[in-house]
């Protein structure tokens, strides 16, 4: 690690009654593929993993995850875990625009930056939360470093590489649409965009007027050039940890619980996602005493428990079956929870 930089800031956001401001420490670490910036909230808890997030294209950690982590019911969770919010290179606030000809890392290389972050922080295990491109990055990391990932929450993930038809459609769309409009089409469904709600207007303005739009385009290109993760149920390429798959109601591939566009449940349904996450954590053996309420409109197919094959500890698992092609596989049965918000 050639260069390390640390900046301490106080997060400015509305506080709940009796809540004190969180202190956020922002770090920058040099990796073999360039510098990566991440922000840490809280302090490490004994025998507990860190929650590590990775955002989607067109967003940074704040615009992607702030509504979720500011939600009232989420406070119980964040008090029990230290969390690390990773910004993809050039996506952090105030990031300079990369010079012309800069070779942006592939999604596989972005995943290979994560060990440098964990080594710097001296964290041994994580629970990852990723959206879209970020979900792909965390999945790739979990495949290559399974012993460091205790669980994954994957929102609107597409584990497949773009086919020729997708590539052609992308090129044709690029002739008539701006980069910001193409990215909005990735983040939200056409129905949402046509409705032009206050949320859509907000994110259209954020992306269209982003000072680092050239950097965002590079991240977008890396996402569109992703490799197939080659997940096969019962095959050799599987996720070894418990997985919670989440898809927004507006996502076009809801039935398969994966989506390349449409719906951002962490923005529009933070309450439902928070409660589903609590169930997921309880299934892993954490927060057993947390008070739970009914998860309205949950479409979780089923919840079952299974003993962990790890002899050092027992974890209950959540199980959901999906017969769609391309379904994410996560090892032995009982490891996957599927939720629609």
From TrEMBL:
Bias (Low complexity) ranges: 317-331
Segments of this protein annotated with the region Disordered: 1-26, 304-341
UniProt keywords, alphabetically: Cytoplasm, Developmental protein, Differentiation, Neurogenesis, Wnt signaling pathway
Pfam family, one: Ndr
Keyword DNA-binding: no
Any Gene Ontology biological process: Wnt signaling pathway
Basic and acidic residues: compositionally biased ranges: 1-14
InterPro entries xref list: AB_hydrolase_fold, NDRG
Gene3D superfamilies linked to this entry: alpha/beta hydrolase
Compartments reported by the entry: Cell projection, Growth cone; Cytoplasm
Cellular component terms (Gene Ontology): cytoplasm; growth cone
Similarity comment: family membership: Belongs to the NDRG family.
UniProt cross-references to PANTHER family, sorted A to Z: N-MYC DOWNSTREAM REGULATED (PTHR11034)
Role noted for this protein: Contributes to the regulation of the Wnt signaling pathway. Down-regulates CTNNB1-mediated transcriptional activation of target genes, such as CCND1, and may thereby act as tumor suppressor. May be involved in dendritic cell and neuron differentiation.
Name this polypeptide is given: Protein NDRG2
